[in-house]
Amino acid sequence: MAFAFHILGTSSSGNCSILESGGTRIMLDAGFQGPRLEASLAKLGLACAAVDAVLITHEHSDHCIGLAALLRQNPALKVFANRETARRIQGALKLKPDWQLFETGTTFEFRGLQITSIPIPHDAADPVGYAVDCPAEDGHHARRVTWLTDLGHATDVVRHHCALADILVLEANYDDEMLDLSKRPLHLKQRIRGNHGHLSNHAARDLLLGLREWQTSELFLGHLSKECNRTILVDEVMNAVRQHKSDLRVTVVDPLEDNPVSTW
Q1: Model's pTM, two decimal places?
Q2: What's the CATH code of the domain at 184?
Q3: How many domains does the chain have?
């Protein structure tokens, strides 16, 4: 199994990706209902039973609602989460997964992959991002895939992990003007903009421009709000990042697109 990374979808209504490396296949978040999750995997020629493990960032439904469907199809699935996230999710599940619990901020190993859990500021019980170190194979150097969505602001720890990523998925959730003009209630707008909400397009840009040295070759902007953002707006804002780092490949993941976005 050669290295491949597939974003099945990332938006405010669902987040899920597949990482294949060293003969292992892991899922990062499972934020789609069963039928869509199965259909998305089928586009890659995969079934739920082909997934070795799933890493859950936090208990919000757009990151874990597909877990029940995965477990029905794949009872032996390893489910990685910290203790508080597992506790919140288990209360809504009829089946008990094979929980693989970790302490937030630690690094653990799964079938040759080194996985680091990254504490992030978001309004969940104990939310994390992940950095997955994949071994060198088939003439390619070792690579680190970093999955960072749902963060209200950029902490020093987040900046550190952004700088170390070879392939980085970072949220650009909303456009300020579109959020202002939306019909969302004031308390929700304040939550989104808060220190434990989401990154705006400009906040994501400023995070990246503030990195002194970083090795990322591929950047994916995700978790776009369907109501309060547009891919063209994110793309325009990221022109400053392209100018700052000319060897960077930038992809804005369309929240309305159902087809996987992949890199090898």
Answers
A1: 0.95
A2: 3.60.15.10
A3: 1
Range of the domain at 202: 4-254
SS3 177: helix
SS3 238: coil
Q: What's the rounded Cα separation, in Å, for the pair 12 and 31?
A: 10
192-213 average pLDDT score: 97
Neighbouring-strand partners of residue 82: 102
Q: Are strands 107-110 and 113-119 parallel, antiparallel or unpaired?
A: antiparallel
The beta strand positions in 139-216, using DSSP E, are: 143-148, 167-171
Q: How confident is the model at residue 139 (pLDDT cuts 50, 70, 90)?
A: low
Does residue 70 lie in a domain region?
yes
DSSP class per residue in 133-153:
EE--BTTBPPEEEEEE-S-SS
In a domain, 262, yes or no: no
Q: Does residue 63 come out as left (phi exceeding 0), alpha (psi in the -120 to 50 range) or beta?
A: alpha
- Asked, for residue 87, whether it belongs to a domain, the answer is yes
Q: What is the spatial distance between Cα 204 and Cα 201, in angstroms, rounded to a whole number? A: 5
Give domain status of residue 165, yes or no.
yes
Burial of 185 (0-12, 13-18, 19+ CB in 10 A): exposed
Predicted confidence at residue 54, as pLDDT, reads 98
**Would you say how long the chain is, in residues?**
264
